[in-house]
Amino acid sequence: QVQLAESGGGLVQAGGSLRLSCAASGPTAKIYAVGWFRQAPGKDREFVAVVNWSIGSTRYADFAEGRFTLSRDNVKNMVYLEMNSLKPEDTGVYYCAADYHYSGGTYHSAEYYDAWGQGTQVTVSS
């Protein structure tokens, strides 16, 4: 199975920026798309963004549109999530996940992803 490892989380002041990385290893040829999800304490896992592994097209949650930028390097097997203008409500554990097949527009649902990283903590102070 594809293995994923997130990094780049940390503590940042409101209005600041962070760049998260997701390193993929193993049978990366299986990857169709890589998504990012986040989970705040006591809340459900929430879709953030997704990128098509082959062509680099992206989709974003409404709260991420215009603030977050998702990109991938499928030669280096890396995915990057640049987060700007961070708000306290962006606080949570951020996970990357690999989807092996086209989901028919259900990329926002965590259940359709096949492999997950362990997450990286993002804390935005007010």
Describe the 3D structure.
The protein is mostly beta strands and 126 residues long. The chain is 0% helix and 49% strand. Strands 2, 4, 5, 6, 9, 10 and 11 form a seven-stranded mixed β-sheet that branches. Strands 1-3-8-7 form a four-stranded antiparallel β-sheet, with no helix packed on it. Strand 5 and strand 6 form a beta hairpin. It starts with a strand and ends with a strand.
Features:
126 residues; mainly beta; four-stranded antiparallel beta sheet; 11 strands; globular
Question: Layout of SSEs?
Answer:
Elements: E1 3-7, E2 10-13, E3 18-25, E4 33-39, E5 46-52, E6 58-60, E7 68-73, E8 78-83, E9 92-99, E10 115-116, E11 120-125
Parallel strand pairs: 2-11
Antiparallel strand pairs: 1-3, 3-8, 4-5, 4-9, 5-6, 7-8, 9-10, 9-11
Strand content: over 45%
> Level of helix content?
under 10%
Number of strands: 11
SSE order: EEEEEEEEEEE
Shape: globular
Broad structural category: mainly beta
Low-confidence stretches: none
End-to-end C-alpha gap: 39 Å
Brief sketch in words of this structure:
This protein has about 130 residues and is mainly beta. About 0% of the residues lie in helices and about 50% in strands.
